[in-house]
Amino acid sequence: MTITGVIQAGGKSTRMGGEPKALVELGGRRIIERIVDVLRPVLPDLLIVTNTPELYAFLGLPMVPDVFPDHGSLGGIYSGLKSAKGDGAFTVACDMPFLKPEVVRLVVSHAGEADVVIPKVGDQYETLHALYAKACLPHMEAVLKAKRFKVIGFFPQVKILEIPEAEVARLADPTICFMNVNTPDELARARALLAREA
User: Fold this and answer.
1) Per-residue pLDDT tens for 93-114?
2) Number of domains within the chain
3) Buried-exposed string 42-67: b where 16+ CB fall within 10 A, e elsewhere
4) Domain coverage including residue 93
5) 134-153, pLDDT tens digit by residue?
6) What CA–CA distances, in Å, run from 4 to 44, 97, 123, 172?
7) 177 neighbors 194 (Cβ within 8 angstroms)
8) Nearby residues of 60 by Cβ (< 8 Å), 6 or more positions away
9) Interval 185-195: pLDDT, tens
10) How far apart are CA 98 and CA 100, in angstroms?
11) How far apart are CA 73 and CA 127, in angstroms?
12) What's the pTM value of the predicted model, to 2 decimals?
């Protein structure tokens, strides 16, 4: 199975005051650059889902717009999967600065075993650190057209492989590797974590 890495950068960053989260600097590099650096050795075929391609042109990666604008994360996941050259897409949010290649490899290593391969932490699915097969597309499209935007809304129609929290924890701290930077407070926490690592 060939897998495309998809970075979701279509959000409006309202909780960050409108500044694109992906372009916020952390440790001297933009968050999206940190994500690309982690993904590229694992998944050489990468693309970005964005409605503002001019902001990300400097990365030199293929970009696609949202097929269903303003349809939340599910719309972005659908758009990336539809455009993926591979048999599936490993989809990640653009605001996860502590992405770990070992955890990405863990998810991708189960490609072909289910339609969705997804880590679960507590009772929370990590929908923006998951692998989606092309077989999901018609089921995603059906819920999007019904204006149901919850990512897990199509899960009953497909085969899911959950990766338990304990399996992730053997490789990285789930509270850090799945951390999003959505707000100035979360950015401050990320900077503190980075300083501690250094």
Assistant:
1) 999 999 999 999 999 999 999 9
2) 1
3) bbebbbbbbbeeebbeebebebbebb
4) 3-197
5) 999 999 999 999 999 999 99
6) 8, 20, 27, 23
7) no
8) none
9) 999 999 999 88
10) 6
11) 9
12) 0.94
